[in-house]
Amino acid sequence: MNSNSIAISVDQVTRSFRSVRKEEGLRGTMKLLFNPEYVTHEALKGISFTIPKGEFTGLIGANGAGKTTLLKILSGLIPPTSGEARVLGFTPFDRSLEFRKQISIVMGQKAQLWWDLPAIEAFDLLRALYQIPMDVYKKRVEELTTLLDVSKMLNTQIRRLSLGERMKMEVIGAILHLPKVIFLDEPTIGLDVLASKKLREFLKAHNQKEGATIILTSHNMDDISELCKRIILIKEGAMIYDGDPHTLTKQDECVLRVKLLSEPTLEEISSKTDIALDRILKDEEDQTTYLLSITRSRITEYFQKLLTHFEVADIGIQEASLERVIQKIYQN
Amino acid sequence: MNLAWALEWRMAAIKNGIKGALAYRGEFLVGLIGSAIVPVGIQLMLWYAIFQSGNTTHFAGMDYPELLAYTWTSLLFSQIRGGDYDFELIEQIRTGTLSNFLLRPVGVVEFVFFQGFGEKLYTALVCLFFGLIATIFTKLTVIHLLMGLFLAILGNIIAYLLGASLAAAAFYWENAFAVLMVKNMVVSLLCGEVLPLSIVPEKYSFIWKSTPFYLFVYGPTQIALGKWDTHQFYAEVGFALLWILGFWAALKILWTYSINRYQGIGG
Lengths: 332, 267
Known about the structure:
With 332 residues, chain A is of the alpha/beta class. Helices cover 37% and strands 29% of the residues of chain A. The longest helix of chain A has 18 residues.
């Protein structure tokens, strides 16, 4: 990959945090005063990857896996303990003026706009901070608020907006200056299905139109599967997968969709096929169709067992959902 | 750096502060009046008690009408001093919301100052309005009032720079509010808002003269009342600028080193 086409490069980045360990109760509090015990937590353990310009990448992992720590390092909020991170050729923690003008971060759990002011006032301040020419700014605000359907809320105090409307305003505020790199930390958290969908469509269109490099962390797998062509999976501070989400779903699990002529119980299917009961579901729309989550390598075996013990009307293979695969990775 | 942009974002931050103050006008006025009542009430009762005893005609180098004039005039400047925006910095460090500002293309400490300063400018305008009314009924002159206000605004800048420097302690302790509360108590005593500093015996006056706090209330009040002449005004402005320079340097050094400890906690 040409170095000019790389937006983000991370090389053997580690990050550890030292904190005081407090024992329970009053005795623990007293001990803390006179003899504090420190523990070091390794949040990131030698992570390396590169992201080309314009790519929409998903950063996923369970709570505490190290996603937000990595975003903080890439955005320049904290330095890595060791290793090197570079974004657009800058060392993020230097926080140079040029770097800060070209990046943006949205944190779903933290408001970044001014709570007591209407969004339009906050956008006007951002215009001044990022030196956006007035005519460009006006056109952009109109375009973005129309796309996200929040034009009518521009003059409402941020704190009076619904969570979905506020999040849309936060995203507009974050991309108003057309940053080249955008870090999105759980932007759809707490949003309803419609608001999440709208935001996803908007982000996808923005990525395609402006060519911004976007890193998204989310626990909502719909966000990831709809937006990201690539995912980086982090578990306990280490990177365990880097690639296409579809490759991940094809790797291991799949769903066998079986239509039977009879209507056996789930227990019966489980006992005849040796598939765990919690991996068998009945199709809500068809009482004789069953969904069996199985390991891809054992398809033939299960196929034979089903044909031996039941009268099969139809059978098909579905890809396992990203959510199911990720859940399994977290559990293991 | 582009000069026009440098001015534009600072003006925008000031305007943002004014808009913030205007968003809650009722609360703003109640806060303004409420914070004035206690020090004024204490002083008025104290002067009354002292002069009612009949044994004295002068106190702290002033007679009764002069003390009353001091109390009412100092009230205007005590509203301009300080501000809670250094507390805001600690809260931002503690809760991780400092991250919002650290990644903007402007200095975070400066941005918080200009935003808070906007609110104080609004307060200064309200005080100027009351001060101008007072010039009709008292010996207060417009020019002296404006000179006093100017010094008080410089005092406000000093107060913030000191507070923001101390706020760097939050990078180490997280909950460093006590540092600012102690600072505020010392400032309250040595700025002349509770009692005129002329009450301090001459041989101990070096205590308040060696701090910048008298520039917050006592100095501006003396200027406004015409007790300090124009030469002294210029001298005090010079001192104020030196203090600003000193605290600005301290602030730069403290934040440059301390910010490496920032963890942006809270998600």
